[in-house]
Amino acid sequence: MFGLFTQTPQFFSDLADEVRLFEEVKRIEKLEREDTPGEKVLRHFFLRCGAEWQSRAVYLADGAVRAEIEMRAAVPDTGDGILIKKMQKRLVKQTVYGVLKAATGKELPWGSLTGIRPTKLFRELQKDIGTEAARELFLRGFDVSDVKTDLAQRIAENQRPFLEDVREGDIDVYVGIPFCTSRCKYCSFVSRDMERSGDRKEAYLARLTHEIMAAEELIAGRRVRALYVGGGTPTALSEKELDALLTMLHRVFGTPAEYTVEAGRPDTVTKEKLEIIRAHGAGRVSINPQTLKRQTLDLIGRKHSVRDFYDAFALARRAGFSSVNTDIILGLPGEGLDDVERTVSGIIGLAPENITAHTLAIKNSSEFALEQTRAQNAALTGRMVDAADEMLLRAGYEPYYLYRQKYMSGNLENAGFAKGGALCRYNIDHMEETVSILAFGAGAISKRLFGGGARIERAANVKDIKQYIERTDEMVGRKKKLFGEV
Question: Are 299 and 260 in contact (CB under 8 A)?
């Protein structure tokens, strides 16, 4: 048992996430008393002395102090409550990270940063204190490695021209199709495989159409910057269903400058479906092999072969898509560094405009988690990520967005790479939180930015497909309330 006591209980979840980065535990017990004993206990104390905060953390193992750290910081001279909370949280997390590092001797590539958007933080710091000071804070204050600091800075620079193009009132649109031909063993998303939930597909599409049409008024006077149809697997729909969906989307949203349709499962890709997607104006498609090792595809529950991926990619090229993305996953069970290098090399040989390198994250509700399948050794996964990044950079690909997830192997990241300036606007907007998003479908989350992103409010749709079908009007109401229409 690992116990955590803190005098800043509002940050307990954040501190528990830090503990999980260092300790092989998922459940952290919240201690109400500082003197509660335990095999491993972390005690955190926080107080204000005049114009200064004092934050102290003590790590105990079997009652003996293994490490102790104290940090201090000036209380911000401002009445901005949001800024004060942000600075307080930063100090608390740095203190707890420091004591965990001292007690365990572990080095983490992203240091004390546990949030999913490190590049957003770097960009904000650049604006506030300048690039060099932002780098210094990443390196010395947050203990981020040189390699990851360089990565964050490079991504921020590559994003700049795309973010400068954002206009006030711009909006992105996301449409979710939560059906797949099978469920991957690492997946915890709302997606349902067709064998179990295919009977709800017709009703789902009808209610999705209703939700979109009912919220059409919300885009009046706004520029739709990007439209993204994801999932799940949109190409798991029949040709007739796909055509009807995209026809409706064109009627409501027109043809935005960027229009993506995911065709993630190669076994769902046909010449006819790709022609339908192109005919409706989508110029970007995503076809995802995850790995080019047949044994791994079988292990993770994919129903396609390596040849299926190559065939699907060739079909996309013949269909005339200007941008093709491919996803790969690093750290898959049973794979070694040589497997990753073969996969990356094989995909580079196809010259897709985008390659997204994900690090395996085993979520609690995934089949891998239920089977107690372990992720790869963190050090090995780190070498895989470094090797993939180096190969992509040598091939002329530039990193343009990244995000991080809980339970990610090696405390690493998912990073998107682009060639020839073919950056995906939607990915940047979504991860950097620079544009409001109208999101439709089960599990979709709409968000509205206020004050240029100083405040963000969200409206989440229910995840369960049956609940979504029954409560679609409620989802519409949430969106209208978020965007100030009721």
Answer: no
254 domain residue, yes or no: yes
* Percent of all residues in the chain with a pLDDT value above 90, rounded to a whole number: 83
- Asked if residue 484 has a cis previous peptide bond (ω within 30° of 0), the answer is no
Selection from 182, 407, 404 nearest residue 299 by Cα: 182
- Between CA 115 and CA 90 the distance in angstroms is 11
- Neighbour tally for 198: CB within 10 Å: 13
Q: Which residue is it, tokens 């990244």? A: 402
Length of the chain: 486
**Residues near 150 by beta carbon (within 8 Å), at least 6 away in sequence:** none
Same domain, yes or no: 270 and 400 = yes
Tokens of 196: 């179990």
Res 486: pLDDT: 41
pTM: 0.92
Same domain for 197 and 66?
no
Same domain, 90 and 171: no
The reply to whether 180 falls in a domain is yes
Helix 118-129 and helix 425-432: axis angle, to 10°? 70
Q: In the predicted model, what is the mean pLDDT of residues 114-133? A: 93
pLDDT tens string 339-378 = 999 999 999 999 999 999 999 987 777 787 777 677 778 8
Q: Give the pLDDT confidence of 386-426 residue by residue, as tens digits.
A: 999 999 999 999 999 999 987 787 889 999 999 999 999 99
Same domain, 197 and 335: yes
Integer CA distances (angstroms), 285 to 234, 269, 400, in order: 11, 11, 17
Q: Which amino acid is at 366?
A: S
| Dihedral sign of CA atoms 284, 290, 293, 294 in order | negative
Contact 197, 465 (CB under 8 A): yes
Full domain range(s) for residue 72: 1-106
Q: How far apart are CA 228 and CA 234, in angstroms?
A: 11
Mean residue pLDDT of the chain comes to 93
Q: Decide if 421 contacts 443 (C-beta within 8 A).
A: no
Note whether 354 and 422 are within 8 A (CB).
yes
Q: CA–CA separation, 231 vs 462, rounded Å?
A: 15
DSSP H or E stretch at residue 49? strand 40-49
pLDDT tier at 60, thresholds 50, 70, 90: very high
Q: Which pLDDT score, from 0 to 100, does residue 193 have?
A: 60
What CATH number is attached to the domain comprising 286? 3.80.30.20
b/e per residue, 303-333, with b = 16+ CB within 10 A?
bbebebbbebbebbeebebebbbbbbbbbbb
Is residue 394, in this structure, part of any structural domain at all? Answer: yes
Task: Report the 3 state secondary structure along 66-131.
Answer: EEEEEEEEECCCCCCHHHHHHHHHHHHHHHHHHHHHHHHCCCCCCCCCCCCCHHHHHHHHHHHHCH
